[in-house]
Amino acid sequence: MGWHDAVFIAAMKCIVCKSDLVENFKVIDSKTYWKCNYCLAKFLDKSHYLDPALEKDRYLEHQNNIDDQGYRDFLSRLSNPLKEKLVTSEKGLDFGCGHGPALAEMLSSEGFTMDLYDPFFFPNKDIFSKKYDFITCTEAAEHFFDPYKEFNVLDGLLVSGGWLGVMTCFLTDEELFGNWHYRRDPTHVVFYAEKTFEVIASQREWNCEIQSKDIVLLNYLHLIIIHEIYKVNHLVQFLDDFGVQVVVAFGQFADFGSEFQLGLWSHPPRP
Fold first, then answer.
1. Superfamily covering domain 43-219
2. Please, where are the H alpha helices in the chain?
3. Which residues of 227-262 are buried (b: 16+ CB within 10 A; e: fewer)?
4. What sign does the CA torsion over 143, 147, 152, 153 have?
């Protein structure tokens, strides 16, 4: 490696977390891949990205058939745990839905209101002025040229306490990267590990739930906890007005540092 290469690596930042702890990972089929030693993401060098026309042609080869039960079962790996967090009739966005938005159709059939966005097939820019109760991102995050920016965009599209559901194949063994089917797709430019999503979440003050391999649910849970405590306060006041003694204790939430310390509220009965 020459001096100019060393300078280039020093200036390289991770496209997922913006860390400068980046090094050469592998060169495979004349393509250079980088590794972030902070979030553990691996990503293709930008010089190897497909041009938009070739990228779109590749997406058109995907068979996203809503009537294919196998494909529905595949998508339900994300939709089922996500629906447990939602209330029917809430508004969602299928971000990166592709030319066959099967997941959006599945959720719409169950009473959810869905918008679609895909830069090639549903370039609906109106979505960027809206807020959503939940966002799905299935088999799309691996296509992000600038994941740090995209996850910030998704953060801005969610209502307080909203949920982001992501499905992407996790890289679990670096030694198998060269022959990994996910890497061989020329439109896949970034590859995540569980640790990667933990970093993505921590940078945005999200809660991160790894539901299973390749499935992650993220949300800004701080606001939910604050909202619940706000409701408890009002309940305490309501009962106190009727002379009911109320003692409420709640401890520190591990995910939120020292923000919520062990406390005790005591409201004695009125004479």
1. Vaccinia Virus protein VP39 (3.40.50.150)
2. 3-11, 52-60, 69-83, 102-108, 147-157, 181-184, 194-203, 221-241
3. eeeeeeeeebeeeeeeeeebeeeeeeeeeeeeebee
4. negative
Between the CA of residue 83 and those of 135, 181, 207, what are the distances in Å? Answer: 11, 29, 17
Question: How many other C-beta atoms lie within 10 A of the C-beta of residue 20?
Answer: 13
Domain boundaries, the chain: 43-219, 224-267
Report the relative pairing of strands 22-28 and 246-250 from DSSP bridges. Answer: unpaired
- Give per-residue pLDDT as tens, 16-65: 999 999 999 999 999 999 999 999 999 999 999 999 999 999 999 987 88
Q: Is residue 237 pLDDT above 70, yes or no?
A: no
Mean pLDDT of the residues in the chain? 84
Tell me the per-residue pLDDT of 166-176, one tens digit each, with 9 for 90 and over: 999 999 999 99
Buried/exposed 49-61: b ≥16 CB within 10 Å, e otherwise = eeeeeebeeebee
Q: What is the pLDDT of residue 231?
A: 46
Q: Residue written as tokens 């959503």?
A: 132
Per-residue pLDDT tens for 102-151? 999 999 999 999 999 999 999 999 999 999 999 999 999 999 999 999 99
Q: Distance between CA 216 and CA 86 in Å, rounded?
A: 15
CA-based nearest residue to 256, from 200, 192, 201, 196: 201
Structure tokens at 161: 């306490």
Cα(39)–Cα(14) distance, integer angstroms: 9
DSSP output for 18-51: --S-EEEEEEETTEEEEEETTT--EEE-GGGPPP
